[in-house]
Every structure is written in C-alpha cells, then in structure tokens.
Design a protein that fits this description.
Elements (H helix, E strand, L loop, with lengths): L2 H8 L6 E5 L6 H8 L3 E5 L10 E2 L12 E7 L8 H10 L1 E12 L6 H10 L7 H11 L6 H9 L2 E9 L9 H13 L7 E8 L1
Parallel strand pairs: 1-2, 1-4, 2-3, 4-5
Antiparallel strand pairs: 5-7, 6-7
Length: about 200
C-alpha cells in the first residue's frame, strides 16, 4: 500500500484530530487527510502559505495545550536535529490513547548487495560503486540512522505496528516497476529493505 493508504489504515476514525509534522512545501498528505474528514493541522517552516490546516512553525513552537489523537511524520524523523526532545514533544501532544504514525528510512542499512543493485539500476551513475557509496554517505552525514531512531522511540512509545518496506525505487526512473522489483528482491533476501513503517503508543 502507498503512504496515504498506510496512514489511513492506522489512524483512528475521522474526524479525529491529526497533526502532521514536516508536511513539506506541498502538503499533499495533509490535504488528503483533511479531505478524508480529519481535523488536520500540518506544520513545517516551509509549509504552504495558505491559511487553514497549515502552520509555518517548528514543532517546538506549537502551543503546549494543542492535543491530537494522532501525530504523523513521513520521512522526517531522521532529519530532526534534537531527536529526543522532539519525540518528547510529540508524546506530550498526544491525547490518551493517541498514536504516532511514521514512515521512515534507515539510510545506514544500505549493505553491499543492496548498494550494488541500486547502483546498477540507476540511469545515471557515478564512475564506480565505491564512488556511489561515498556519495551516499556524504548525502546522509549528520542524519539519524535506524538504531538511533529506534532507541529513542522505544524509550517513549510501545510498538503497535512495524514493517520493512521498499524505499530505493524512488531513485529509479520507473518507480512503479522499480518498487515491484525491489519488493521481490527483498522477499527473496537478495537485497535489504531500508524503508520502514512504525506505529506506536506513548508508554
């Protein structure tokens, strides 16, 4: 299932109040959830300027008394500079029984067979696999890896759902075929999944 379907499958029924953290410049997911009947607030310093569901603020600028039935973050957590206090704030903004819904990547999980597959599948590639690995590392310097994120999550949330997911197809020209191919190779244990989905409840 795609991101929208996954998020909808994990949210309480509409019109629950939902916060999306890191909505990005287009806010597509927030708009879809709003259209599905949820009471949305979507925050990001680069959020759309439209009034309504969007706020151009950081998580730490959100009023402490704003409470939600669910918080959603899609490929945001690994970018957060101060991860522990950010997760504290997310937990504190959840109503009793609320859920945190994440779609994330473990960029640091890219092993040799997976890197080689991605290198060979791209239309434009660096001169060598070693150059490709070096560029991958450089692109992710300073970002949180999988274990770091899980450690902070496990200290604050009880896992309700977890799955490994394809992610690298997003780097390929034909995403539809690429996702199917990547999923098949993951299921055959030929390459490693670095995408993951998580749903947790505050401890």
């Amino acid at each position: 299932m795609d991101t929208r379907e996954f998020v909808l499958s994990q949210l309480p029924p509409a019109p629950a109040r939902v916060l999306e953290v890191g909505t990005g410049g287009e806010g597509a997911l927030a708009l879809e959830l709003d259209g599905a009947g949820y009471e949305m607030m979507a925050i990001d310093p680069a959020a759309p300027q439209d009034e309504g569901i969007f706020r151009r603020i950081k998580l730490e600028e959100l009023d402490a008394d704003e409470l939600f039935h669910a918080v959603v973050a899609v490929r945001v957590l690994h970018h957060v500079t101060d991860l522990a206090p950010a997760l504290d704030r997310i937990r504190d903004h959840l109503r009793p029984g609320g859920v945190l819904v994440l779609e994330e990547i473990g960029w640091d999980l890219l092993d040799e067979p997976t890197a080689e597959w991605l290198y060979e599948e791209q239309a434009e590639v660096p001169a060598s696999l070693e150059d490709f690995r070096r560029e991958w590392e450089d692109e992710h310097v300073g970002l949180h890896g999988y274990e770091a994120m899980r450690e902070e999550l496990d200290g604050r949330f009880r896992e309700r759902f977890f799955s490994w997911e394809p992610f690298l197809y997003r780097y390929l020209e034909d995403r539809v075929t690429g996702e199917s191919l990547e999923r098949g190779l993951i299921e055959a244990d030929a390459i490693r999944a670095i995408g993951w989905r998580y749903v947790g409840e505050p401890l």
